[in-house]
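[Discussion] Sanity-checking designs against the backbone

I'm trying to build intuition for which residues belong where. Below is a structure token string of 250 positions. I'd appreciate it if someone posts a full sequence so I can compare it with mine line by line.
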């Protein structure tokens, strides 16, 4: 195994309540790599991330090299409007230094004072439940990076966010990854995002369908295995968006 490997997974299978969820998954992740995980609903993507974190029993071997520090944001983290915790209090649970908290929040695009109605409050004093979907995702990203992790695991980090906010969140993650040299494993439902931001993509549908560079392995056969009759649509979307991205130098 190369010395710069971060994670190696060999023949991992997961069975829950006697139902096979994942079967014979084998792959590796290098330090500083962005790996996108794609597949249809029910393919086992979220289960895979939780298995990598040691939260779900499995067969096979999962090895994290060098005991890396891992940040994780689960899918669909909903916070009630009246949840009695401010952004500052939430961040202080991990980092008591207010200046560092402000610095990290600023790095993810959350800074200064924010208005709610006629009131203006500092971002640290905002209730978590008052934040928009995009703002909450930024705070959660700040939460995961404030203690300098080696790898981030994100389960559909833009679920429920409008397209403009979605693009910005992925751009932010890519910027952080390039600056801090951290690895990112993310589940995404958007193949256009995968083509743009991932070094490698893993396609799963209970078992591995493909693994490698998106432009090489996301062919018609792989897409048909994942999405059936929708494959042509996904391929078309990529081509048109890729051309648009190139034009705008994204």
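Best answer:
Here's mine. Compare freely.
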């Amino acid at each position: 195994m190369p010395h710069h490997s971060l994670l190696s997974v060999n023949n991992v299978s997961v069975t829950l309540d006697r139902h096979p969820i994942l079967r014979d998954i084998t792959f590796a992740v290098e330090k500083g790599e962005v790996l996108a995980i794609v597949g249809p609903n029910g393919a086992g993507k979220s289960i895979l991330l939780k298995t990598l974190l040691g939260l779900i029993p499995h067969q096979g071997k999962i090895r994290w090299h060098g005991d890396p520090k891992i940040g994780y944001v689960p899918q669909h983290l909903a916070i009630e409007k009246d949840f009695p915790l401010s952004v500052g209090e939430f961040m202080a649970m991990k980092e008591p230094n207010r200046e560092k908290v402000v610095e990290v929040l600023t790095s993810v695009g959350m800074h200064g004072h924010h208005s709610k109605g006629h009131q203006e409050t500092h971002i640290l004093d905002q209730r978590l439940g008052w934040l928009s979907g995009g703002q909450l995702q930024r705070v959660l990203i700040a939460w995961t990076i404030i203690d300098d992790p080696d790898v981030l695991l994100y389960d559909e980090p833009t679920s429920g966010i409008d397209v403009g906010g979605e693009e910005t969140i992925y751009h932010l993650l890519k910027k952080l990854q390039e600056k801090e040299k951290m690895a990112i494993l993310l589940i995404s439902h958007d193949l256009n995002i995968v083509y743009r931001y991932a070094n490698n993509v893993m396609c799963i549908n209970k078992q591995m369908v493909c693994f490698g560079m998106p432009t090489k392995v996301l062919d018609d056969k792989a897409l048909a295995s994942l999405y059936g009759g929708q494959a042509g649509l996904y391929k078309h979307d990529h081509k048109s968006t890729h051309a648009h991205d190139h034009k705008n130098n994204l």
